[in-house]
């Protein structure tokens, strides 16, 4: 027969909304071979997650039982369970959790209370659970939210927030305020919403939308889709074959990564400004000409160009370039660089008629 279970009282907690709290059961029950945990608040029918011994468990209802724990938590102080506090607009203000520990000698029970601070709207620092698809809404305040290894949904809501997706296919929504969103690895969806936001897709094929004021969107590596929407935005496709849409406002569109040793090398980017006085950047004063490496295999496409509103930025002088019909049998003008006529840009639409390299709509740096 096993020795009796030794217990230490579990303290009560005051919890903030949307945060998770960990408790090592081995610190309060010695000699148990199974645990039953009950008393969780309603979760609107959605599964709830608990980490135990480093492994994830999903369950519905208000209870969960772990069996055969002897040896699994011994010497692993980081183990235990984590209770995700509900993050709905009106979460359960308090609830009592009951823990029953058992072995062949019998059982011991203890309870502890969770009180959710209703007036907490401060600056939160929240990290999602690993191995789960976390849904976290930080609400008011200037918050920092980190996802984890799952496909997470992070919402900054009101305030100047930082949302960090990490790995997984994440969805990040900044909400009101001037926010910073970083997708991390994999294929993410980033939406800035109201405010002047900075969105970084980072690795993966990402979708970025500014939505609000004057936003900065950087796709990072991968084949990304960037949409500035309203106001004056800076869109940078960076690595990969990217599609940039400025929409309304006076936007600056850069398909390549200006920090690369060979910006635009091996890429085909599409730069669409739509309305407003837009700038299409095909070179700069430091790296000079973008897309200058693989003849006709890398270039930027400008589907809509207005000679009276838009500008194309190039490096050097007009004599460095040649305008001739674009290849591939399309009705467009090709911008070629150097004596070897390396294609760097294709200009389509009504604005291609009579393009002149010395005109004011070409800006040389």
TrEMBL record:
Q: What is this protein called?
A: Calcium-binding protein
Give the transmembrane ranges: none
Q: Predominant location of this chain?
A: secreted
Q: Where is this region: Disordered?
A: 204-223
Organism in which the protein naturally occurs: Gomphosphaeria aponina SAG 52.96 = DSM 107014
A GO molecular function assigned to this protein is:
calcium ion binding
Pfam families assigned: HemolysinCabind
Q: Which GO terms describe its cellular component?
A: extracellular region
* Xref: InterPro entries: Hemolysin-typ_Ca-bd_CS (IPR018511), Hemolysn_Ca-bd (IPR001343), RTX_toxin/Mannuronan_C5-epim (IPR050557), Serralysin-like_metalloprot_C (IPR011049)
Q: Which UniProt keywords apply?
A: Secreted
Where is the protein localized?
Secreted
């Amino acid at each position: 027969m096993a020795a009796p279970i030794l217990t230490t009282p579990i303290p009560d907690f005051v919890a903030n909304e949307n945060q998770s709290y960990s408790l090592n059961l081995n610190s309060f029950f010695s000699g148990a071979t199974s645990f039953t945990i009950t008393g969780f608040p309603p979760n609107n029918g959605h599964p709830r997650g608990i980490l135990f011994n480093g492994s994830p468990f999903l369950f519905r209802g208000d209870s969960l039982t772990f069996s055969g724990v002897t040896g699994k938590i011994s010497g692993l102080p980081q183990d235990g369970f984590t209770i995700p506090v509900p993050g709905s607009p009106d979460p359960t203000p308090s609830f009592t959790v009951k823990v029953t520990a058992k072995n062949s000698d019998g059982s011991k029970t203890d309870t502890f209370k969770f009180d959710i601070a209703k007036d907490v709207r401060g600056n939160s620092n929240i990290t999602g659970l690993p191995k789960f698809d976390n849904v976290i809404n930080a609400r008011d305040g200037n918050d920092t939210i980190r996802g984890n290894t799952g496909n997470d949904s992070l919402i900054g809501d009101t305030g100047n927030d930082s949302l960090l997706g990490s790995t997984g296919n994440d969805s990040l929504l900044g909400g009101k305020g001037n926010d910073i969103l970083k997708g991390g690895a994999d294929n993410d969806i980033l939406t800035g919403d109201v405010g002047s936001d900075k969105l970084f897709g980072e690795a993966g094929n990402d979708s970025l939308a500014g939505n609000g004021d004057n936003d900065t969107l950087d796709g990072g590596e991968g084949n990304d889709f960037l949409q500035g929407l309203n106001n004056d935005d800076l869109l940078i496709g960076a690595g990969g074959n990217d599609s940039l849409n400025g929409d309304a406002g006076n936007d600056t569109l850069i398909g390549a990564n200006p920090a690369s040793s060979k910006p635009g090398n091996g890429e085909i980017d599409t730069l669409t400004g739509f309305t407003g006085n837009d700038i299409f950047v095909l070179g700069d004063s430091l790296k000079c000409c973008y897309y200058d490496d693989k003849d006709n295999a890398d270039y930027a496409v400008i589907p809509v160009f207005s000679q009276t509103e838009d500008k194309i930025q190039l490096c050097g002088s007009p004599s460095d370039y040649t305008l001739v019909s674009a290849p591939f049998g399309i009705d467009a003008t090709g911008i070629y660089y150097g004596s070897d006529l390396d294609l760097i840009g294709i200009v389509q639409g009504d604005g291609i008629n009579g393009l002149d390299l010395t005109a004011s709509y070409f800006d040389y740096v």
